[in-house]
Amino acid sequence: MLETERLRTRRIVVDDAPFILELINDPDWHRFIGDRGVRTVEGARDYIVKVPMVMYERTGMGLDLVERKEDGRPIGMCGLIRRDEQPDIDIGFAFLPAYRGHGYAYEAALACRNHGVQALGLKRIVAFTTVDNEASGKLLLRLGFQYEGTIPWGREGDVSTLYAYTPLPPIIPIPRPGSPAR
Length: 182
Fold this sequence. Notes:
- The protein is an alpha+beta fold.
- It has a single domain (7-165), classed as Aminopeptidase (3-Layer(aba) Sandwich), CATH 3.40.630.
- It is 31% helix and 25% strand.
- It is built from six helices and seven strands.
- It has helices spanning 17-24, 27-32, 41-50, 52-59, 104-118, 134-142; strands spanning 7-10, 63-68, 74-81, 89-95, 125-130, 146-152, 159-165.
- A seven-stranded mixed β-sheet has the order 1-2-3-4-5-7-6, sandwiched between helices.
- A hairpin with a 6-residue loop joins strand 6 and strand 7.
- Helix 1 packs across helix 3 (41-50) and helix 3 packs parallel to helix 4 (52-59).
- The protein starts with 6 loop residues before the first strand and ends in a 17-residue tail after the last strand.
């Protein structure tokens, strides 16, 4: 769906279950996103059908699988999410530990953010992180998101950090007096 210099994204399919099982059982996924209770490949298949595939069908968007072009290796997920309880579309991402620190998350999230603005015409994209997820917060700031504060999110009593990206309108040059009109 999206392509960058090193990466491409595509919809998650049932055959991606072994990768999804590995990703959603990463300790950082559990810490920052939450334990989905998926412990088997069959459970991962069920998760794919009930979460990403339902989201694609219902909203036309969701988290996509991110793979390296050089070898087709799945390394993470990234995408835009339309949630019923939120007025704005949000961006989400998660990568396996071996592929963090190589610029992949930035590359994928930048392509996703740009797609949201340029192809979908979004005027605002938000992101939510747990308060202690400093790495994701730094990445969002690098992507041009602004910190907006904390909000209630998730289970009762949980708080998340809210970031927002609002693209600047294009600059239209104003002709100087005496210059020919274009």
